[in-house]
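Good day; I would like, with your permission, to put a structural problem before you. What I wish to show you is a protein chain and, alongside it, a tokenised description of its three-dimensional fold. Here, with my thanks, is the record as I have it:
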Amino acid sequence: MSGDGEFFLSIIGSIEHAEFYDADNVYCKYGFHFGPEWTVVAGIEEGLTQMCKCSSDPRNLAVWNFPLEITFKSTNPHGWPQMIMSIYGLDLFGHDVIRGYGVCHLPLKTGYHEKRVAVYVPESSSTLQRFAAWLTGRRPELIDPAILASNGGRDLTRMRVEGAVTVTFNVVMKDFFKLGYKNGENPDK
């Protein structure tokens, strides 16, 4: 039962698969970033998929089919939850290295949604840093990937696209319309 002025957002879905330009054994670390008036009332706020070997066809597909399930409660839609993904893979020496980051807002409408999320990797800012990264096999990495969910500092980070992750969401909202919020849906249907 919800209290006065609260609504719920429930997500069941899956991190389906990823397509990469240059990766082989990969896994995905994910988490949710949301505003201060949001709380998680059920489900898992962060997790880690299994490692997957990419397919040998031109798509270079890594299939995870990793389940997602989380329910949020809030009094205000400001700070709508976002999913942040950090993709890691093995280098030639078997060390974990970052393969890219992806971020997407959770859908604003009820029902089934499939999102294709671009995966970006940070680029070195100088020729010397690029050479050192090539020599050591260590790529530039964000200290806190949550920066991707905010506007602060994003314009200072050089990134390039390395692939895409497909995520599916089944969305249910409770008491959203009763509180007077609208998202383009007709709540009377």
